[in-house]
Amino acid sequence: MCVYLADIRVGKVAVLDLSAWGAEQSGIRQHVQMTELATPDRYASHSVFTDPGAYATLIGGLPRDIAALCRTLQGLLIHEAWIERQGLDPADFSGQSRATLPVARRLEQLLTIAPGPLSIARPGASRALATCRDFSLMMCAVLRHHGRPARLRCGFGKYFTGHPLHDHWVCEYWARDAQRWVLVDAELDELHRSLLKFDFDPTDVPRTEFITGIEAWKRCRSGAIDPAQLGHGSTTRSVLCPRQLGARSARTRGDRDLGMGYMARGGRAEPGIGRRCLVAL
After folding, report:
1. What pLDDT is recorded for position 191?
2. Among residues 121, 116, 114, which one has the least CA distance to residue 92?
3. Angle at CA 257, nearest 5°, toward 263 and 28?
């Protein structure tokens, strides 16, 4: 008998042959084969989270060039952990929440803070409080608006301080000319470069510098990495179990962008983030 398990966000299905299930359940490692079901074009259309709604024309004028778009987003958003390093006062953002907003609501917020074109960089105190999810989600929304397949990837970056593998979100888009998925970290500006000392192009993050949650899960299972290397500052458990790691890359709520992952802050999942890693069909 076979059971079909799906990672509906990355468009893959695993077929488990339960007849090979061993006494120690080792069969799941030996008999899982992943098959790519989704084409890149599946990711060219909006989801509930990336749909700009009534503000579609507002993002229509944003750059199509990836590097220019990153700079534009850096002029609209500010990461909560980098406020003081940007020379700003956290009190200026006391009325804002770190919660990730759907793009339509984020655009509404930006106009409320400071009406005007989004193409013009705003003073630091006029930017919207954000996390890596927000930079990636906005990047994804603009790329999709221009008809380019894009999706969010949750996993771990090697270029931060605190943990060898730091909990992080990036955007991934399909480069038609190169026929490959490209990782983009829209959060990384020149201040990040000077303090973090990374030497790669943030518009094409090497696969050696960022690993997805699924990849982290596989490496932990194989013993290639120690789960204690994974984390997020002082608010995340130092050790994440394989089930939690797998959940970081499998999107099981039905929405294609944020219904996934397990942010182990104090052992609780953040609002809107699913805990399961696979769903039986």
Report:
1. 86
2. 114
3. 65
